[in-house]
Amino acid sequence: MRAIEITQPGKPEVLQLCERPLPQLKEGEVLIKVHAAGINRPDVLQRLGHYPVPPGASDLPGLEVAGEIVDGELGASGFRKGDMVCALVQGGGYAEFCAAPLEQCLPLPPALTPLEAATLPETFFTVWSNVFDRARLAEGETLLVQGGSSGIGVTAIQLARALGHRVFATAGSDDKCRACEELGAERAINYKTEDFTAVVKELTAGRGVDVILDMVAGDYVAREINCLADDGRLVVIALLGGAKASLDMGQVLRRRLTITGSTLRPRPVAFKAAIARQLRERVWPLFGEGKLKPVIYRSFPLEQAAEAHALMESGAHVGKIVLQVL
Q: Which of 24, 126, 176, 258 is least enclosed, having the fewest CB within 10 Å?
């Protein structure tokens, strides 16, 4: 099969087209003939040598795919060979065939193409796990999404809004802020020209937000503490602003704040399977109701993976970047 491999850590040009044998299936896995694969920030980190591959995972990049089940034991899953699915995987998505845990496969939402469905698993698994499971965003509560124009951001905005929450977001330009508001953010804050802490406090009559989804960390953490409501929760899922932070622990104590974080890739199949079940039951129907939609900025053919990574690193995109494989 054709695949994209990382020849050595480095710039996008180290992504090269290669020939690889088909994946050997492990127990509980199915083989997917890949139609499209989503590109995510962890792929870039892996290419740079900053995101180690979990033991037993493919060294090929790619954490989400959509395509046709062509092999594997399907048991009582309800899937059959020939069914179109999208799936969260530990690696190997940038290829014509990919092994995926059966329990991490989901049917394509109604009326979505494989190209569109390939943009869903990584961001929806991540947002559901962190915003709704870990941070426990509850009825009547508010959410601030840092980096609202990213793939994670557009998912978090849409999903929280579809479930009835007030949502605020930050982004790095007025155009990106408008895009966030069109997707459901009540107010998007240009972090280059505005103080997001002050704006959030004003929008909430001084109360602050209940949950913050943060992909920045670094010096954002101290400012985020200041715009959390009492009993608020900050959940960190990336460290684009750095791994070190200073914060006022007095506020954490007095106002009963929670600071937490997680990474999804190394978690076991059983953990991700539980998320898949919740997505299928509670989120996938929202696509059919028109409350959610994929947001694709641009697609590239498989052999142009390097160009796709260069675009992601430029930060010019709103939403997802996708590789068209078939």
A: 24
- Tell me the pTM: 0.96
How do residues 219-258 score in pLDDT, each as one tens digit? 999 999 999 999 999 999 999 999 999 999 999 999 999 9
For all residues of the chain together, what is the average pLDDT? 97
Tell me the two tokens of residue 178: 């408008």
CA distance 95 to 36: 9
The whole-angstrom separation of Cα 65 and Cα 106 is: 11
Burial environment of residue 269 by CB neighbours within 10 A (0 to 12, 13 to 18, 19 or more): middle
Nearest-angstrom CA–CA distance, 108 and 127 = 18
Task: Find how far residue 7's CA is from the centre of its chain.
Answer: 25
> Nearest to residue 188, comparing CAs of 292, 199, 127, 160?
199
Q: Residue 123: which H helix or E strand, with range?
A: helix 121-127
Do residues 89 and 99 make contact, with C-beta atoms less than 8 angstroms apart?
yes
Only one residue has tokens 């740079």, namely: 48
Partnered with residue 144 across adjacent β-strands are: 168, 212
Residues sharing a CB contact under 8 Å with residue 310, sequence separation 6 or more, in sequence order: 12
Structure tokens belonging to residue 249:
């622990």
- Can you tell me the distance from the alpha carbon of 154 to that of 297, in angstroms, rounded to the nearest whole number? 11
Sign of CA dihedral 253, 258, 262, 267: positive
What torsion, rounded to 10 degrees, do the Cα atoms 150, 153, 155, 161 define? Answer: -150
SS3 percent helix, strand, coil of the chain, rounded to 5, is 35, 25, 40
75, 169, 269 from 103: Cα distances, Å = 11, 32, 7
